[in-house]
Specification:
Layout lengths: L2 H22 L1 H24 L5 H6 L7 H8 L9 H30 L15 E5 L5 H10 L3 E7 L2 E8 L6 H22 L1 E7 L4 E3 L5 E12 L5 E12 L2 E9 L4 E3 L2 E23 H5 L15 E4 L7 E7 L4 E2 L6 E8 L2 E4 L2 E4 L8 E8 L2 E9 L5 E4 L6 E18 L3 H20 L3 E10 L2 E9 L19 H9 L32 H5 L1
Antiparallel strand pairs: 1-22, 2-3, 3-21, 4-20, 5-6, 6-7, 7-8, 9-10, 10-12, 10-20, 11-19, 13-14, 14-17, 15-16, 17-18, 18-19, 21-22
Helix pairs in contact: 1-5, 2-5, 5-7, 7-9
């Protein structure tokens, strides 16, 4: 290999290492999370505040595409912000950062969880160590029993002429951060997978209608849609009774409610909404004035249906009203009138459009009904009637004293059909993150090192305890107990120190340091006393 090739290889390896260090840094991960938060907020604002995007925006703003804001709206703003390329790139960067952080810190945390390292001599010189002397014949046995009773794992080693004990408790808590990173990584990967290959669309179904799922062999039939109300008439709940078929075989029947979806073969059907069908009704109620009908023109003065178009006002006075209910799809006789009527067309919001009468919106702003009239089996004409203008009728049908007063709306259910191919990863990530959080916060990782050294008339015991707070002041019997851990106090009760106190402890004043003498600790004041 030439020098140039070796130098190039080292340069590439250096770039990889630099990229790895960047991805594994906490600062980079925080920046990516902040960018994701901003993108999520913008995505929610876009969904709520900008209802026209893509092709809809091009149609709505066709004459204003040269304006910068409109051009940005049409060409830049994504129709699905959370499935956009930018959001996926941010999720991918977060995934790489989590993976690098897990690899970088995982080995150290794994070792801390399972391996008990032998102590070194330098550790016992720490100012946080507690040293006392005891005349006990064999202090190792009671101290070992105490540590094992506190669920410490032990490792015994020789430290020159002394005996050293390394102890560790709840080492599994060191895996908490690793599991949290792994769970978060699985969560992000699952979210990225769903954003890339998941789908979602609405199904609007009337009772009795059938929809075909993307898997052509599966069909969903709405058997009944039901709305429950409170005694005050407020909506309490609504749900859809459905039947799922595969080919011609019934697979299952289910009730889909809010927060209770139907799941089958990776499909999820959610009850999200309902609405009034803008072009169908269950039935319509009309009033026929018998007084006007029976006293109308007779003989040659009466105009036959179709001779002139009906475009006028029905008299407002109904002395003898007859209620006529016409269900959808049925022909109903109009009592004494020589005609039968059936519903031909219904529009919840009637408007005259470029091509004639049509639906302006799905809201019931101007309900209109078109009736067809029959004499026997012969069609004699059709008229439009308006719920908000019951005195009006327009059409070529018979001029009857008939009013459109109300209707029973046909409600359609709104079911969201979604696929979540990465949902398994998401659930696994949630479980692993929860486990990692519990290990981190419910188990307190503690380590202790003991050195037992023979002296002339007994034993010198040195203890360094990490991971536990100092003894609470209200439980301290003596002044020095406020500066050591409860484990150290319990050890000195098992193996009593000479003179009733240790030789050295954390916070102990050095000889000649102010008013504190050797073997005594200065009385803390102010914030030091509060911390103690």
């Amino acid at each position: 290999m030439t020098r140039q090739a070796a130098s190039s290889r080292r340069g590439i390896w250096g770039q990889i290492v630099a990229l790895y260090e960047l991805l594994s840094s906490t600062r980079f991960a925080i920046l990516v999370v902040i960018a994701l938060a901003i993108a999520s907020i913008l995505g929610l604002v876009i969904i709520d505040q900008i209802p026209f995007r893509g092709e809809m925006a091009r149609m709505r703003y066709a004459e204003r595409l040269d304006e910068p804001l409109v051009w940005f709206l049409v060409h830049i703003v994504p129709a699905s912000p959370f499935r956009s390329l930018l959001f996926r790139v941010l999720l991918a960067l977060l995934s790489l950062s989590l993976l690098a952080c897990t690899i970088k810190r995982g080995r150290r945390h794994w070792r801390e969880a399972w391996v008990i390292d032998p102590p070194d001599a330098q550790r016992f010189r720490s100012p946080n160590a507690v040293v006392w002397q005891s005349a006990a014949a064999d202090p190792e046995a009671p101290l070992t029993r105490l540590l094992r009773g506190r669920q410490f794992a032990l490792r015994r080693a020789a430290c020159g002429e002394a005996t050293c004990l390394s102890a560790k408790r709840f080492g599994l808590s060191r895996l908490g951060p690793v599991l949290t990173h792994v769970g978060f990584l699985a969560l992000v990967v699952g979210g990225l997978w769903m954003a890339s290959s998941g789908s979602s669309r609405m199904l609007w179904l009337r009772p009795g209608e059938t929809a075909t799922l993307p898997e052509a062999s599966l069909r969903l039939t709405l058997e009944e849609f039901q709305i429950e109300t409170t005694p005050r008439g407020q909506i309490a709940d609504y749900f859809s009774h459905v039947a799922l078929f595969e080919d011609t075989s019934l697979v299952r029947r289910a009730t889909i409610e809010v927060n209770k979806p139907l799941r089958h073969r990776g499909y999820s059907l959610y009850q999200t909404s309902y609405r009034q069908d803008p072009t169908r009704v269950r039935s319509a109620d009309l009033l026929l004035d018998l007084a006007q009908l029976l006293s109308g023109p007779e003989g040659d003065d009466a105009a036959a249906p179709g001779d002139r178009p009906t475009h006028g006002r029905v008299e407002t006075r109904f002395d003898e009203p007859l209620n006529v209910r016409i269900p959808w799809g049925r022909r109903v006789s109009l009592g004494p009138a020589p005609y039968a009527a059936e519903i031909d067309t219904f529009f919840a919001d009637f408007r005259i459009l470029a091509g004639g009468p049509g639906l302006a919106s799905e809201e019931p702003r101007n309900p209109a009904l078109r009736l067809r009239f029959f004499a026997g089996d012969s069609l004699v004409g059709a008229n439009w009637y308006f719920a908000f203008h019951p005195e009006m009728s327009v059409g070529s049908g018979p001029d009857l004293p008939l009013r459109f007063i109300s209707y029973d709306p046909l409600m359609t259910t709104g079911l969201e059909l979604s696929t979540h191919p990465g949902s398994g990863w998401v659930w696994a990530g949630i479980v692993i993150m929860t486990l990692g959080t519990l290990l981190s916060f419910l188990l307190r990782y503690e380590r202790a090192w003991l050195r037992l050294r023979r002296v002339r008339d007994g034993w010198e015991i040195t203890l360094l305890h990490q991971g536990s707070p100092k003894q609470a002041p209200e439980y301290a019997r003596r002044e020095w107990e406020r500066y050591v851990t409860p484990l150290a106090i319990e050890m000195m009760r098992r193996v009593e120190p000479r003179g009733g106190r240790p030789v050295r402890w954390p916070g102990m004043a050095e000889p000649g340091a102010g008013s504190g003498a050797q073997g005594t600790a200065p009385r803390p004041s102010g914030k030091e006393a509060e911390r103690a």
